[in-house]
Amino acid sequence: MSRPQCPRCLRPTTHCLCALIPSLDSRTRVLLLQHPSEVSHALNTARLAALGLNNAQLVVGEVFDDLATLLNPPGYQARLLFPADDAQPLQVYAPGDLPLLLVVPDGTWRKARKLLHLNPLLAALPRVALADGGISRYRLRKAPGPGALSTVEAIVQALQVMEAPASFELLLKPFEALIEGQIAAMGEEVFQRNHGDGRQE
C-alpha cells in the first residue's frame, strides 16, 4: 500500500517539505519544462523551485503543443538556460532591460536534449549559461562533470546573478532538507561508501 502523500510537494506526508518552501518574488519569470520521467523522482527539485517562486510555472511533457504561448508572455523576452558554444553569460539587469522569461528544461542531460529535439521552438531560443565552477550540494548523485547542478541550484544561481543583490538562497532550504532526509534513510555508512569523499571519519 502506498504511503499518504502531500498533494503540494508530492512527498510522503511524514516527510512533507511545505513548511520549508518559501514564497519569493522575482522580476524574472521562470518556466520549467519537465520531462515526465522526473515527476515521480524522489528528488524532484524542479517542483521545489516552482513552488518556491511566485513568478514560476512548471509544465510536464515531451512535446508542448502550446509552447508558442508559453514562450511569449507579454513583457518578457525568452532565453533558454542550456549550454551552447554561443550561449551568453547571465548578467545583472541593466536599467530599462526587459525582464527575462528563463526557460529551464528539467531532466537528465539526455532527456533535456530530447526535449529540445522534439520542440524546435525551444531549440531556437537564444541561450544563456551559468558561470563555470558552480559546486553542487547534491551529494547523492555523481555529477557528470564540474558545474553540473540540480535544477533548483541552477535557477538559484541564475537569479542571484540577474537580480543581485536580491537573495534566493531560501529556495535551497527544502532541497537541503531533502538531501539530509535521503542520507538519513540510507544510513551514514552506506552514504559514505557510495557517495562520500573516501575519507574515514
TrEMBL record:
Keywords for this protein: S-adenosyl-L-methionine, Transferase, tRNA processing
Domain DTW positions: 2-187
An example Gene Ontology biological process: tRNA processing
EC code: 2.5.1.25
Pfam families: DTW (PF03942)
UniProt keyword annotation of Transferase present: yes
Leading EC class: transferase
GO molecular function: tRNA-uridine aminocarboxypropyltransferase activity
Assigned protein family: Belongs to the TDD superfamily. DTWD2 family.
PANTHER family linked: TRNA-URIDINE AMINOCARBOXYPROPYLTRANSFERASE 2 (PTHR21392:SF0)
Protein name: tRNA-uridine aminocarboxypropyltransferase
Organism expressing this protein natively: Pseudomonas haemolytica
